[in-house]
Design goal:
Layout lengths: L14 E7 L6 E5 L2 E4 L3 H7 L6 E7 L12 H16 L3 E7 L5 H11 L6 E4 L12 H12 L9 E5 L2 E4 L4 E2 L8 E2 L7 E4 L2 E4 L21 E3 L7 H6 L6 E5 L10 H9 L4 E5 L16 H7 L2 E2 L5 H13 L4 H7 L4 H11 L4
Parallel strand pairs: 1-4, 1-5, 5-6, 6-7, 13-14, 14-15, 15-16
Antiparallel strand pairs: 2-3, 7-8, 8-11, 9-10, 11-12
Length: 353
């Protein structure tokens, strides 16, 4: 098991921020026009970074062959978490900046927020335009992220995403546009603050978080299924074979085609957690509709509800919980089904519990 202790070491007066490079658009340029590829390491980015008063900044690359975002796997995520934890243990280090590709940045940020335990900040950043394009945004984002990571007020805020001058929590940061420089946002309005000429301005106080001791050798199989109209009953059965858990991005408050309910009931009966998120752009799962495949039906069946967690973050949290060996009862506490509302609705309808 990879158990990561909390790092609470004091920060000396001269603070150090470590830039950890993993590739991505921020480290890419076009050798062939219109076709970007990784060409720079963390040291190259640091060489272009404007000095930050009061901070020592050093750079290191996490892995020589970090994959493209769409190929990232569980084992390497666990290695990255352990690598960052070792950096944060060093007394001179105030915080860490991770430069990363934006395709899966929100998932990596969520994973790190659940696994790395430290009062010191991890700030993730990247770029939407590569180094060869006019308006390359990487150095501004990197400069902002370094300032945040070295700021005393950033302690206790966990993992943050810093893009286009905006600070977002790992739990809600979302890539909302394929290519715009302001691609990242918080669908549920959970912005932590902004970075300006005077440094970071935080909107909220630090918030304590709990962490999970995941097993790097155990990568849970948790498919993410999207609901849609005209679905048939075979879809879920095929995709959910031999899985450890399932996350479903349901319509509205968290609904599924009625044809899926038999397979959902079978999964839950066999001890496989089924976690309902919403495919909507913002808002939370909840209870409001009767009928086959409706939210009350799912709650009665024993499905879990992700609340306002986005489907990708909900899946990552369920994966981490399963890897850490959480029981189904513990998962019910982590993703509480609104049973009280179910019973209240039954009481109003004069139905037995």
């Amino acid at each position: 098991m990879m158990t990561i202790p909390v790092s609470t070491g004091s920060i000396p007066s001269r603070r150090t921020v470590v830039i950890v490079g993993t590739g991505g658009t921020i480290a890419s340029r076009e050798r062939v026009p219109g076709m970007a590829e990784v060409a720079s390491g963390a040291a190259d980015l640091l060489a272009e970074l404007s000095p930050v008063p009061g901070l020592d900044v050093r750079a290191t690359d996490f892995a020589a062959h970090y994959p493209l975002g769409w190929d990232l796997q569980w084992g390497l995520l666990c290695e990255l978490a352990a690598f960052l934890q070792e950096e944060l243990k060093k007394p001179e280090v105030a915080g860490v900046v991770v430069t990363h590709g934006t395709d899966v940045l929100e998932e990596v940020a969520c994973f790190l927020s659940l696994v790395v335990a430290s009062e010191k900040p991890i700030v993730m950043t990247g770029a939407m335009r590569n180094q060869s394009l006019p308006g390359f945004d990487g150095m501004r984002n990197l400069h902002d992220a370094v300032i945040v990571a070295g700021d005393e007020e950033a302690r206790g805020r966990g993992v943050m995403v810093c893009m286009n001058g905006t600070l977002l929590p790992a739990a809600d940061a979302t890539k909302m546009h394929t290519s715009a420089v302001d691609a990242f946002g918080s669908p549920n309005g959970k912005s932590l603050g902004h970075v300006g000429a005077e440094g970071p301005r935080f909107n909220t106080p630090p918030c304590p978080t709990s962490h999970l001791a995941v097993d790097a050798r155990r990568a849970p199989n948790v498919p993410l299924l999207w609901t849609y109209s005209c679905a048939n009953g075979a879809t879920l059965a095929k995709l959910a074979q031999d899985c450890d858990g399932v996350v479903i991005a349901g319509t509205g408050l968290g609904h599924v085609p009625s044809a899926w309910m038999a397979d959902i009931e079978a999964l839950i009966t066999n001890g496989v957690p089924v976690l309902m998120a919403s495919r909507c752009g913002s808002g939370a799962t909840g209870l409001g509709y009767a009928g086959a495949g409706g939210d009350f039906h799912l709650a009665d069946t024993g499905a879990l509800f992700a609340g306002d967690k986005r489907p990708l973050q909900a899946r990552m949290e369920l994966m981490c919980a399963l890897s850490a060996g959480m029981t189904l009862d513990a998962l019910r506490a982590l993703f509480p089904t609104p049973r009280r509302l179910v019973q209240a609705a039954r009481d109003l309808a004069g139905q037995p519990g």
